[in-house]
Amino acid sequence: MNKKTQKQEQHIEILEKSQQLKFRMPTEIRISKHNALYQASIQLEELDYTKLYRAYSGIRKSQIEPRVLFKVLVCAYMKGVYSSRKIEELCRENLVFRWLLEDQKTPDHCTIARFRGNRNLQEAFEDLFFQYVKKLENKGYDIDNIIQSLFRRACLSYLLFGNLGVYGERFCASGGI
């Protein structure tokens, strides 16, 4: 058997009972290390999610891990997408967002809206956003652009923060909305 035949046989399986062919397709998603959302995901992984998990423990669970859903929200906000339905669409159709989901089920718009609108999680969200902004500030990133993309949603709806803190107040005061 030559190499080409062996390679083809790795992707074909014959189901004994039904005599049907089953084709295996590689489904691994590879994202460039230079992609901004890839970089954001790596940086978000370094945050301390203890407060989020503690606050989330008393809430009705969805099928998606809160850390992953938080990363999806931050990356959507970075792309300028704030609508729950649009975020759901990104998760279904955009390869980078599929990769961010880490093989978890795509959240529907209700799950996204309930997650970010839950008052019990507000302090945890605030803590994570501030950790992230501080981490980027320490790495020398242009913090004003980051604040603008991350806090626009908070300034418009106050869903994410009861108290906008130093960064959010600076953004809102500068007329960033």
Description:
This protein is mainly alpha-helical and 177 residues long. Helices cover 59% and strands 5% of the residues. The chain has 10 helices and 2 strands. The protein has helices at residues 3-10, 36-45, 50-56, 66-78, 84-93, 95-100, 109-117, 122-138, 143-157, 165-173, and strands spanning 12-15, 20-23. Strands 1-2 form a two-stranded antiparallel sheet. A hairpin with a 4-residue loop joins strand 1 (12-15) and strand 2 (20-23). The radius of gyration is 20 Å and the shape is globular. Mean pLDDT is 75; it is low at 4-8 and 155-167.
Question: In a few lines, what is going on in this structure?
Answer:
This protein is mainly α and 177 residues long. Helix content is 59%, strand content 5%. It has helices at residues 3-10, 36-45, 50-56, 66-78, 84-93, 95-100, 109-117, 122-138, 143-157, 165-173; strands at 12-15, 20-23.
